[in-house]
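Appendix C reproduces, verbatim, an entry submitted by the partner laboratory led by Prof. M.T., so that reviewers can inspect both the input and the predicted structure.
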Amino acid sequence: MRRLITSVILYSILVSQSFADQNILSKSNTKYSVNSSSEFIFESYPNQELIPIRLIGAIKNAGLYHIPPNMKLTTLLALAGGTTSEADLENIIIGNDQQTITNKEGIEKRNLIINLEENLKNARNDYTLTQNDIVLIRNKTPWISNDSFRIFSLISVVLTSILTAIVIKDRYKK
């Protein structure tokens, strides 16, 4: 009977570990991935002046965009295919490696955090992109992390196995 219980517990640990390993392998190792074709040029007429903008994070088509000057952030997001379902639209970070950024109060900063949902309530608050802007759209922070989920899964599988072994032992005695 002890062998049966030990076998069930070892089997459950091996199954839960292989499940966790498959989840690790299926996820990308990078926090913010960029698609294979990651440079896009938006040109409405020949020899139009274009500025480079880097768009990274929870975007369907992240990458380097060459766009006309004074394009709005929402227009760029639309050109990029929109955001993913995990996008945190309340904390979009815009930085610029060439210059400081001036927010709507006129204060110069190194980077700017935009709540896109609040800005779009008044369409005039849409951010105008400038040359060499870097736009980062983070993923929403999950309520429970992947590590916590793995630990919880492992504990539940072990406890289920132990309870199953106890039930088998009780039925075996009868």
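The radius of gyration is 25 Å. Additional entries are available on request from the coordinating office.
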